[in-house]
Design goal:
Pfam family, one: Ogr_Delta
InterPro entries: Znf_Ogr/Delta
Number of strands: 4
Number of domains: 1
Helix content: 10-25%
Order of helices and strands: EEEEHH
Protein name: Zinc finger Ogr/Delta-type domain-containing protein
Distance between the termini: 27 Å
Number of helices: 2
Radius of gyration: 21 Å
Strand order of the largest sheet: 1-2-3-4
Largest sheet: 4 strands, antiparallel
Length: about 80
Amino acid sequence: MRQVLVRCCKCGTKAAIESSKEVSDTLKQLYCCCRNPECGHTFVVNMEFSHTLSPSALDLPDALRQRIQEVTPAMQGQLFG
């Protein structure tokens, strides 16, 4: 899994995410500290869900998901390609 890279908005140095707080299902606050000892800026970054690019297969009814799993990958490609 890739890590989130946060840069200090004062000096541009990489910052460490010290902790986080889940505000809601779509918003998380990241508490950050600049790694540049001459700067030492501490700040909060909001990480928020924006929009869906591809819907989740979990949104499909169970019966339909089961039927999709039973067909070949080639047939799945034809259904959703």
